[in-house]
Amino acid sequence: MTEKHEDKSKERRHPVRSFLSFLLMLAAVLLVVFFAAYRDGTGFDVLRRYLHYGRAEQVGGEAVYHYEAASKNRFALLGENLVVLSDASLSVLGSGGEEIWSAPVNMTAPALSSGGGRAVAYDVGGTALYVVDQTGLLLELTADEEEPYISATLNKNGVLAVTAQKHGYKGSVKVYDRTLGAEQAFEFKSSQRFVLDGYVLGDTLAAVTLGQENGVFVSNIVLYKMPKEEPEGDYSVSGGLVAAIGEQEGRLVTVSDTALTFANAGGETIGTYAYSGSYLREYDLGGTGFVALLLNRYRSGSVGRLVTVDQKGEEIGSLDIREEVLSLSASGRYLALLYADHLTVYNQDLQPYATLRGTGDARDALMRPDGSVLLLSANSASLFLP
């Protein structure tokens, strides 16, 4: 009888073929991701969200953070931690919603801003100021009642600039370096113009002062190369009051009620973006390489334009808006617009990136640099993953 031999070579080849198929499929997926990343950078964010959260899909309704409801609640993101400020408390909540640090406060007009992995909470016109990071309190300051706080900013390196009234002067800006030592690193005191705000760009303090020229209010930005006590330069922002000052790609940017103005640390104006008769409703300086503006056609109503502007003062994108907008937030290469019944995430060209229908009772949104969004309601916050 002839013995029948089975050819098992095919069986041995099956695992090899399966492994090769897996590698080809993985390569194809990575190719798509890297192509998207090369094109607009969003592919890396998809991969980052998938690796971090274990999924890259729409999520809504599941509360991540819980906090006390208050009409004066202010919010800031420090990585995945949430800072919540009200007129009665200041809290840092961890990524799982746990309370990392909390303290009672007493504020009439609470304000909150962030930068360099820190947040500064202060009472506008009051005497309380706190600086926190993801672990809790870093600095607590109390001003004299005759020298209340006006504003406070943190730059991308966590350097603090505090603007306050000053006895015998028309205002001052104190700068605290990243160590936040008890003594300020530099102080600018103005005897001629009122001081509204301050910001540190590199080793230069930019102080926003207010005066009049020919009966018109003019904001003048005075520049000090620290620790020199003589000004390095200055430039004017005409036609309105400066509402905010920050930076974009190493340049100073000021937001007024009529225009954006971009300048270098030497006081040379690089670009201006005028609103051309439109009314500024909201803005956000948190985007990478762009400023987001919501401009209304009329003083009230919901008819207007959403625009993004680069650091040269040139318009990147424009989108007509005919719906009620509750919140605008920008971070990284994205910006989020929360409408009355939905949320849309855009890229800097204002092309829609993702949309979430049915946002419930969310009344505010915080864009995160990886493309995810935190939706804030009265007493809780939920996460949306595009």
Short overview:
The protein is mainly beta.
Number of helices: 2
Q: Which structural category fits the helices and strands? A: mainly beta
Estimate the helix proportion, in percent: 10-25%
Cα-atom radius of gyration: 25 Å
* Principal-axis shape: globular
Q: Could you characterize what this model shows?
A:
The chain has 386 residues and is mostly beta strands. Helix content is 11%, strand content 49%. It contains two helices and 32 strands. Strands 1-32-31-30 form a four-stranded antiparallel beta sheet, with no helix packed on it. Strands 2-3-4-5 form a four-stranded antiparallel beta sheet, with no helix packed on it. A four-stranded antiparallel beta sheet has the order 6-7-8-9, with no helix packed on it. A hairpin with a 5-residue loop joins strand 4 and strand 5 (99-104). Helix 1 packs across helix 2 (42-53).
Provide keyphrases for this structure:
386 residues, mainly beta, 4-stranded antiparallel beta sheet, 32 strands, globular
SSE inventory with pairings:
Elements: H1 9-40, H2 42-53, E1 63-66, E2 74-78, E3 81-85, E4 89-93, E5 99-104, E6 110-115, E7 118-123, E8 128-133, E9 136-142, E10 149-154, E11 160-164, E12 172-176, E13 186-189, E14 194-201, E15 204-213, E16 216-225, E17 233-238, E18 242-248, E19 251-256, E20 259-263, E21 269-274, E22 279-284, E23 291-296, E24 304-309, E25 315-321, E26 325-331, E27 334-339, E28 342-347, E29 352-357, E30 364-367, E31 373-376, E32 380-384
Antiparallel strand pairs: 1-32, 2-3, 3-4, 4-5, 6-7, 7-8, 8-9, 10-11, 11-12, 12-13, 14-15, 15-16, 16-17, 18-19, 19-20, 20-21, 22-23, 23-24, 24-25, 26-27, 27-28, 28-29, 30-31, 31-32
Helix pairs in contact: 1-2
